[in-house]
Write a structure and sequence with these properties.
- Keywords: Membrane, Transmembrane, Transmembrane helix.
- The chain is built from 8 helices and 7 strands.
- The protein is α/β, with parallel strands linked by helices and 304 residues long.
- Strands 1-2-7-6-3-5-4 form a 7-stranded mixed beta sheet, sandwiched between helices.
- A hairpin with a 3-residue loop joins strand 4 and strand 5.
- Helix 5 packs parallel to helix 6 and helix 6 packs across helix 8.
- The longest helix is centred in the N-terminal third of the chain and has 47 residues.
């Protein structure tokens, strides 16, 4: 092959390389244009999904959200509506139809979910140092599997010193962890049902609630806990005090204690998620709701 042929071959190869490079750049150009078009379409679609009047987020504000860690216990969502009536002026505080076992009257067993703090209303344990008795406390001890057993030495010593005692045991089930706080319920059986007795009951409940709330706050229970609060000193412990008068005393005591300790956010002050006043049915629930509604309207307690 002579010199001219080598030159012709070199020129041909050079042209071929140039054609290949041109084709490659053209393909890259089409690819970038396609990607830019898709990006613009997505941004336009995203803007259409924003509610009217909503500010378009700046790219710097669009920080990827890490998935929340799953808690060891999953709390049942609040059953709002007729099952619960929110207490006016208190966030996440409700009047509930259920009892301290999480079931309505007539239902068997318990329906606790997650971390639960049960306030035990019986004063009997303070005298007997034993998990015994009837009513709400007896049902609680049976559900926890300790009915008839004697309390431990630590609990026994605490019961002798205070009206509010946190049981050091944590009762663990498949779906729950129950913390128990024993309350020495006021006993009004030796009093008549007059107005003076109602005021005495209110004052005793107020002092008990203030102490109980202070103890719960100091204990630092899990933040996702639900407090199951019974109608302390109700039933036989209320003596000759009628239902309506009992509701007046209970509401005044609870609302005063809640406002003094937590303002309008008692659950935040206690470090818990929710508080339920367990009314054991609709009659007492509605009666308490009426008294609390009247208090909200007048700005005064029923016994002020």
């Amino acid at each position: 092959m002579d010199k001219n042929q080598w030159i012709a071959l070199g020129v041909a190869l050079g042209l071929l390389v140039l054609l290949l490079l041109a084709a490659m750049f053209y393909c890259l150009h089409l690819l970038f244009r396609r990607r830019a078009s898709l990006t613009a379409d997505k941004e336009e679609e995203g803007e259409q999904l924003l509610p009217e009047g909503s500010p378009v987020p700046h790219p710097k504000d669009q920080v990827p959200v890490k998935p929340a860690a799953l808690p060891p216990f999953h709390l049942a969502s609040p059953e709002l509506g007729p099952q619960k009536i929110q207490i006016y002026g208190q966030r996440n505080c409700y009047l509930s139809q259920e009892g301290i076992l999480g079931v309505k009257p007539g239902e068997q067993g318990h329906k606790w979910r997650g971390n639960v703090i049960v306030l035990d209303p019986s004063g009997t344990i303070f005298q007997t140092r034993c998990y015994s008795g009837g009513g709400a406390s007896g049902a609680l001890y049976a559900a926890l599997g300790v009915y008839g057993e004697a309390v431990g030495q630590v609990v026994s010593s605490a019961l002798a010193r205070s009206r509010v005692v946190v049981n050091p045991s944590i009762f663990i089930g498949r779906h729950y962890r129950v913390h128990v706080v024993h309350l020495q319920s006021p006993d009004m059986r030796r009093r008549d049902g007059g107005e003076a007795s109602v005021r005495v009951l209110k004052m005793q409940l107020l002092l008990l609630f203030l102490e109980a709330f202070s103890v719960i706050r100091r204990e630092s229970f899990p933040g996702d806990s639900i407090i199951m609060m019974p109608l302390v000193a109700s039933g036989i412990h209320s003596g000759g005090i009628g239902t309506q008068d009992y509701c007046r005393a209970f509401c005044d005591a609870f609302c005063t204690a809640a406002a003094e300790l937590g303002g309008g956010d008692l659950v935040a002050a206690l470090g818990v998620q929710e508080l339920r006043i367990c009314c054991y049915g609709t009659d007492t629930q509605r009666a308490l709701a009426e008294v609390m509604a009247q208090r909200a309207i007048t700005g005064r307690g029923a016994l002020d």
